[in-house]
Amino acid sequence: MPANNPVCPTLRPYQREAVTRVVEHFRESDDPAVVVLPTGSGKSLVIAELARLARGRVLVLAHVRELVEQNHAKYQAYGLEADIFSAGLGRKEAERQVVFGSVQSVVRNLGRFADGAFTLLVIDECHRVSPNEDASYRQVIEHLKRANPRLKILGLTATPYRLGQGFIYHRHYHGMVRGEAEGFFQDCVFEQPLRLMVKQGYLAAPLRVDAAVERYDFSQLTPSVRGLFAEEDLNRVACGNRATPVIVEEIIERARERRGVMLFAASVAHAEEILGYLPAGESALITGATPSRDRTRLIGDFKASRLKYLVNVAVLTTGFDAPHVDLIAILRPTESVGLYQQIVGRGLRLAPGKVDCLILDYAGNPWDLYAPEVGLPKPATDAEPVQVECPACGHANLFWGKVADGIVIEHHGRRCQGLIEGEQGKRGAVMGANSAASGAHGKHQCSFRFRFKICQACGAENDIAARACHGCQARLVDPDDKLKDALRLRDARVLRVSGMQLTAAVNGRGLPRLKVTYHDEDGATLDEWFALETPPQRGAFATAFLRHHLRAPGSVWWPTAPEEVITGRERLKAPDFVIGRKVGRHWQVREKLFDYVGRYRKADNTDYPNQKG
Known about the structure:
By secondary structure, this protein is of the alpha/beta class. The chain folds into three domains: 13-192, Rossmann fold; 202-361, 3-Layer(aba) Sandwich (Rossmann fold), CATH 3.40.50; 479-593. Helices cover 25% and strands 25% of the residues. Strand 19 (384-389) and strand 20 (396-404) form a beta hairpin. Helix 1 crosses helix 2 and helix 2 (43-53) crosses helix 3 (65-76). The N and C termini lie far apart (85 Å). InterPro entries: Helicase/UvrB_N, Helicase_ATP-bd, Helicase_C-like, Helicase_Restrict-Modif_Enz, P-loop_NTPase, Ribosomal_zn-bd. One of its GO terms (biological process) is translation. Keywords: ATP-binding, Helicase, Hydrolase, Nucleotide-binding. Pfam families: Helicase_C, ResIII. GO terms for molecular function: ATP binding; DNA binding; helicase activity; hydrolase activity.
């Protein structure tokens, strides 16, 4: 490093904290880390400061040349020199201590990066790092690690999740687990919430307005196995739609007092149609097929306000910096909250005279920009983020679920996301019957499971998708095998449950009881009876019934009478199958199967074998 650097750029408080946390993390660990900063928060400055502080060589990667250029420019603001390795920028330099490169160019020239002196790899927009080990980023990582096994790897992103994968990191510094332990990135060491950025005046306020005109209806479209909508499906809805000219007319009207307008189209054909309705001479279109020279010219004209309207198709969602943009029009469905946040983020940077950014959504996107992120796809359109406290460690988990009258009546969580240590870890293991894996700094993931599969060999609770017990490694009995075995027995009854009835009844001695009756489609039934008069009876009911039937397992609900259970029946779910065995003249419920995904059908499917006898 030069000894007489000029005055360094001033970092905002959250940027300084991000740098500090990264340095502290890598002093203690070689685990790949993530910093989450909203679009427009100045990731480039954080990268520049870390590159300045690094003792060895630094490689900063991005997937588009605009980001390579931005990150390089921020580093140069320190009065320091760095190389650029990007074919798109016409430079392939890799000799200086710090190199800013595009991943596409670097992966094709790995021999230029064989120097074992690289100690830090920084990846901008790191949510693009694929789990596939053959992907470009992973090839670069493995190449650098062969030269230096202790390479520090830092990713920065505004959207730390991938379609089909969920969160890209395992542990969060606030003391919770988000993604899978097998993921590439292990620790999120710093995160700055978008709402706080807006509140502190670091970003312009997003002003979402309900459009007053007819919208597109993309609700019937289904994403492909890759999680993306097919272009032909998008065209079927958007192209030639009678709503398009009216929508564009409203955008123009609302843009009268606005300076820069970005329109996000569903497809190339749709974008070309939109462009035809915009003012000639003030508008331009950029797609993936736009020649590089034309793209550079059009973006330059837009940034210089020689163009007011810029239509694009999935090419300006990242790496595009035009602070004067103050109207975002979304005319396409967004497959994820991450993409939605990236699109809206194009308009949240500050600029002189800019007060807010108007967000016009004509595609009915369901995402809430400020909503806590769950990281997994919505299980249903009416699901929302709900907070569920772990009964073992008290961690406030965030799952998809439903709320009624202020009560969480359903959630889809499987295991507590809390990170705990010491005696709490032991308590969690007892209540969850699972040994937790070690985390950073001696912490463990709480072992309490909201949904579980019990090992018949040792009694341990396992994930509902597990095939072998985590405790004794015994093979877990497949639900299909249970059904098949029961169907062979003459003294067993298997019900494919089509209904569950709750009744306040009395037993033979006249004492109040809760009667639970399971029905199948042919009228066969099996019954269970529960007493709730004493605390031990209520505890037994909670263990034998509630923990399995609650749509929001782990909820604190201790009904004291059958009538309370019946009143709260919306909080309960029926099993998919019930297996009963005959004891004397009566049938007893021996097993209930929930969350069934096997080959025998549930009550609303086909191909279920008939049971005889």
